[in-house]
Description:
Blueprint: H1 5-11, H2 25-33, H3 47-56, E1 64-66, E2 73-75, E3 93-99, H4 104-116, E4 119-121, E5 124-126, E6 130-134, H5 140-153, E7 157-161, H6 165-172, E8 181-185, H7 191-200, E9 204-207, H8 211-223, E10 229-232, H9 238-253, E11 265-266, H10 275-287, E12 292-295, H11 300-314, E13 326-330, E14 339-343, H12 346-359, E15 363-368, H13 375-380, H14 386-396, E16 406-409, H15 417-423, E17 429-432, H16 440-447
Parallel strand pairs: 3-6, 3-12, 6-7, 7-8, 8-9, 9-10, 11-12, 14-15, 16-17
Antiparallel strand pairs: 1-2, 4-5, 13-15
Amino acid sequence: MGLSGIEIFKKLPKKNCKECGVPTCLAFAMQLAQGKAELSLCPYVTDEVAAELSEASAPPIRTVTIGVGDNALKIGGETVMFRHDKTFENPVGFAILISDSMSEGEVDDKIKQFNETSFERVGLNLRPDLLALKSEANDTNKYASLVKKVAEQTEGNIILISESKEMMEAGLNCCKEKKPLLYAVTSNGGSDIAGLAKENGCPLAVKGANLEETAQITERLVKEGFKDLVIDSGARNIKQLLEDQIKIRRAALKGKYRPLGFPTITFPNEMTNDSMKEAMYAAIMVAKYAGIIVLSGFDAPRIFPLLVQRLNIYTDPQRPMVMEQKIYELNTPSKNSPVIVTTNFSLTYFIVSGEVEGSKVPTWLCIMDTEGLSTLTAWSAGKFVPDLIAAYIKKIGIADKVEHRKIIIPGYLAQIKGELEDELNNEWEVIVGPREAGDLPTFLQRIA
């Protein structure tokens, strides 16, 4: 951040009113410096100080929003070089390129790819974010028709790509309410496009021939009042692009160099005609700081690994991924189907549910909230113990779904069998399941 906690504290009203939810102004200032609180929580800070602190305490890489509403994509806002220092804030956005020079069938296929690309993993829906619409046909009506079609048929955020003010204006008129990203201002032109961005409140992309030129353009635009910028260093080979991405992040974070303190947009689709190479280049950009990655297509073998990579890199390693506490119905269970109880650690759920589904045995899977801890860890932490499991079984309503009174617990917790039956007033028989999930199919087929 730009200011330390003490420097921020000196500018606060020092009332210690606690209305911000923090005991003292000093503690609030420390949270502001760490990015853990919003200045708007202080009801007594003046507009002048608010403007000063907002600018001074802004992250070294500006947060830029593309789109509106729940589907809006936020990029940038990062404060560290490496994920182990602090969680990365805003995941990279994936865009599919569609040109107005493509045939109607090709355009429909690209739109279909975007709309249908969705994968469920660890309880999350993984999907891309943007459609990059490029003007190549030099026909305002054709470009406007493409933009209108995409805006009407998808809920994705939009990037408008054109060197012409007329083309950009024609496209923008069809989707201005979506606040698209306008690409791009260069050293040779684009001032008219910048004017459209300012007039319509849209984020603006900048493209230089190299980093020095890119910084010169952003510095000029910032002086003109532009804040929401996305930068393209102009590199179109992977070696130079990787170097540029690292230099941009380092200059902004380590050198506090504001002209490069913006998220980036990269174009692996322009670097190769080999789809697998394109995916490899994109994977490098996911790991090394891209804000947006533009691809030529979203076929599953290419996009799925990239979505999973993004999920892994941008998941907070200090917060376990969890499943919702509820009863999951696997293989259409009936009143006579077995009942399994386990923790809500997502990996536990997906391993167990995968084996159960593979067994073809209809089963009730009761997932208990253990704050995302695995079975043995939750047991040792006192979160998956007989009294809590019994209370969960009684309140979850599984007794209303089955005619029998038998529950299956993980094999590694065999020692709690007797105590759990006591906690359940001996109304339920506790069956010790196998230790390894891979043995579940045989076990379930035997007892079903």
